[in-house]
Amino acid sequence: MRERTILLVEDEEYLRENLSEILELHGYKVLAVPSGEVAMETARKRSFNVVLTDLKLPGIGGIEVIQSIKNINPDTACIILTGFGSIESAVDAMRAGAFTYLKKPFEKSELLVTIEKAFEVHSLKEENSKLKNDLKKNHTSAIIGTSSEIQRVRDLIEKVADTDSTVLILGESGTGKELVARALHYGSSRSNKPFVPINCGAIPEDLLESELFGHEKGAFTGAIATKVGRFEAADGGTVLLDEIGDMSPGLQVKILRVLQEKEFERVGGVNPIKVDVRIVAATNQDLEKAVEEKRFRKDLFYRLNVIPVNLPPLRQRHEDIRVLLDHFIENISKRRKKSIKGVTPEAIKIFESYDWPGNIRELENLVERLMVLKDADSLINHKDLPDKIKKPGTEFKIGEVEMPNDGIDFNAVVDDFEKNLILNALKQVNGVKKKAAEYLNINRTTLIEKMKRKGIRDSLGPADSLD
Ligand SMILES: Nc1ncnc2c1ncn2[C@@H]1O[C@H](COP(=O)(O)OP(=O)(O)OP(=O)(O)O)[C@@H](O)[C@H]1O
Ligand SMILES: [Mg+2]
Questions:
Q1: Which domain holds residue 263?
Q2: Which of 77, 79, 256, 461 could pair with 122 in a Cys bridge, judged by C-beta atoms 3.0 to 4.6 Å apart?
């Protein structure tokens, strides 16, 4: 078991020795000092689980001792010893960070119970700090990806998380904007305060103002009680203004004021309310264009755009697809308590060549759907994948027909078009005619017939007999 350490600060020698003895007899490791000065010097050199200090000391008093020890190590549990009639100072001591006080004279049993409680408080605090630290350390590890683009995003988050700078997160739908906003919050010293996401696009305009700023009782019909808005609820924490591009012009003015002055009024209220919130905004719109088109206030844009974080679409970082795939399979297996073996290389290729217009959310949803449908411990293979992702989009698009003024040769153009269709279909299925026919939804014999007529050689694929 770990040593249970106590720093005892007491100027009366008799009491100091007496208390030390009792505590040591009960297995605590006690260091007893006669003054606040010595206590502070000792606390700078080593830490203690619990501090038991007299309130009235000749030099530096007990309250100051507690304050400075808490500064050095906030997890220390402090108890103050007060003389007769000094209850008010005991209250001050509690404000300074003592968790309780003992009034002299006290019984031995009272002392021991209080000390035991102090150790409980200390270990809870320690555990809490550890969890918070883990959260902080891991705040960017939830953002998966090995591409240089995503690495750059993680680095930027590490740098700006624990500042109060406004961050504007830009990216297509499903690229992880909210995930980044959470990483910013949990990587900051605001992490034990609320993270409040507000979807500016989803709340009806007439409700948005009272939603954000709250309202006073009777401010409008239906306002039957005073309501605290999201900004107030987020005090000390972070507000994510999501879909900021969809915000009405009127509200843009009000948000600008919160950003500039850190204050606002509740709807129907007259007293300004001060809040301490960090603002993070996100949008999938091109805000600069919105500014040009006068849909979005320029001054608000500049206020928000202090630190822009650009999230590239998944199609620009194909190398992340595979790691994300593994990540989601692992996560979903845990959540659904159903594991699958993995994904066949052929299926991975298809995943990697699809464009993912819905980005990571689309990938995540598909993996979830596939895992629900598959039997436990099976492999996801290319046949399981929906046609939509199997068919490449524009890569094989057949060119447009030119229409010159002096007319075209219909038969030649159609012939050419058909030839291109067949060639591309063959290319797509590695020259396997049976598959090409399926792809084009025509008979295999029709395909072979057409190939002969158009002089398409068989050199693309395996021998006919193997088809
Ligand atoms: N890099 C990533 N690593 C792991 N999971 C991710 C990553 N990016 C996004 N996700 C996951 O994808 C889903 C969509 O992400 P998120 O909601 O943050 O996107 P968004 O950009 O806010 O989308 P929208 O514009 O549609 O609101 C979430 O479940 C999120 O956890
Ligand atoms: Mg979002």
A1: 148-312
A2: 77
